[in-house]
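Morning run. Coffee first, then this:
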Amino acid sequence: MLGHVGRKRIYTDYKYIDESNILSVLGRAYSKHCANVSDMDFLIDYEAGIHPAIRDREKKIREDIDYKVVDNIAHYVSRFHIGYFWGTPAMYIQRGNQEIHASDEVIDDTGITGLNEMLRNGEDISYKRQQIAKYVEKTGIGHSLVEIKLADEYDDDDILINDEGEYIGSLCHVYDLDSRYTFCVYHNGIGRKKVLGVTYVKNEDASRVFTCYTDTLIYEIKNGEITKVSINPLGKIPIVEWNRDVDLTGCFEHCIADMDALDAQASDIANDSTQRTQDIWWGHNIALPEDEQGNPKQPKSGDWVLTNTPQGLGDRASDAKIAPLASTYDSASAQNQLYRKFNHILQKCYVPIQSETTGGGSTGSAVDMSAGWSAAELDALQEQNSIELAAREELKLILKAIKFVPENVLPMDSPIRKVHHTDIDIHFSRRRNYDLSVKANAFATLVGRGVHPRHAIKVCEIFEDSEQVYADSKDMVTAYQEKVCIAQPTTSGDQATNPDKPLGSNDRILQDMSDQIDNSPRLQAGV
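And here it is:
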């Protein structure tokens, strides 16, 4: 069982870690980490379907019928959050043209696009994000590691740039780590600065080899002794800790008690269904035939309960009966209660109801809110604030690692070397095709009113890689905007019949939710 809700962050009183204190800090930190690992193992097993509450439950009545049903809604919840939030990896986009570095817009666009290409094609970042997501969503924390790619790791035929000038190879290493073998230690002071990053392996002889990173040095520790010390070339701790929430909890952790109750309900319904097909029979005022040893010959299909009317209290022959011994049980109500419990857990875990269909006459917004998608998006936005902190820390490490790439592999004037982390926004993309008509109309209106296409693309949330879309489309969109700004605005007429008319703030290219007003009595009434 969980010792507590949420993983415990590991702190130390030391502001700086060196050879004089690293062994004592590591020892205390590792004991706290082991407590977290115990909870993480429980949560990972629970999500896999190992539920001790129902597994260890003792059934004292009809022990021969004892189903232990694991509904495992925890797996359903975690799969949704992994798919919804992490299904598309966050991409890098340029923050804007006017920035403190006053760097060239085209160079920044090319560098950021190349950075995305490098991570997607060279580092398979989509897969690695899924690996991190498994720990983040199930246990509340995850870890990644950024390392420099050494010169001798590049093959002679290693292709880094394709014919279109896009980076398709890897310029550094980005690893996903098992959080049960990784932890970070923070200074217990203002700012909570990270002072130590640790990852370790277990050998076959049960010994552990720790690799400990500070901002300046890398320590290798085995059997309580420092066996190797080397310089940390990045100048920063390369281990990044990803937190799902400020309380370091998984996506279903707060609802484990409800999930255990759901398992118990499902098990009781299964037991009841089986018991009704294996009834105990009741025989009153009857005598069963006996075998040679004098034992009653009972039917082998079930059990019997035999009773007799005492002498003088009635006609035993006329009162004889055989019937199944059954209890009254409202199966329909029990099933409805089970269904309500299931949906209640989904609601508490911010998972929308995806298996129901709604009738006609509802607006898209009403369906979105009633099914729980709006609540899921609010939860994802909160998670995004925590995840973005780790994603930006990882970005800084990646850009620092790229500075060590040999010049013969990556020229010094390459745009990717000139990108600064403050030039970049981290773009999270979810449900891009939802309300596509509304987004298309918004994009057309923004572009038609002179908003920079980069910002119009970002705010409309349509595309997975907004930076690449802008890089591929900016010439055409810019030419269109120049034409619109020069053209005289038209006050009447329809765009479909007047293609030369520039799109204005009141012109739409598709129907959107505003066309649903006629279907909503509340909107018609002005409520």
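The first helix runs from residue 22 to 48. Good start to the day.
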